[in-house]
Amino acid sequence: MWVAGQSGVLKLPSGRLVRGRGLRDGLPGGALPSYGVYLLGEEPPAVEWESRWVRWPDFRLPADDREAREALVEVLARAASERVEVACEGGRGRTGTALACLAVLDGIEPRDAVAYVRANYHPKAVETPWQKRYVRSFAKS
Q1: Residue 105 and residue 109: Cα distance in Å, rounded?
Q2: Is pTM, for the whole model, over 0.90?
């Protein structure tokens, strides 16, 4: 499992830990993930661990809402017993949005999820107005 308080590690209300990061920053020290979801406009490079790509262009929303939801539901389930990470190029907009959606899946009210992620992951997470709206409407989709 990840360690709460470690760089990029978000502790969800259930106690599950998910690491968010920016791919351009490289791998942080410590244990490798056992599973990763990569939110990029183009297919990511191969990694040593099991992974999934969700097409999600920079500063935008996922190309396929259903696929994004399925990936995030899987992240939440796997985070109960595995080291799971979610990442995009910079680690703030798309990653922050995905982490806020995970918080919604884990019981945070949609209207509070962005503030939760900003307080517990990165103060500039979820960068655009449409990403904020996506989080608020995530519970309804």
Answers
A1: 9
A2: yes
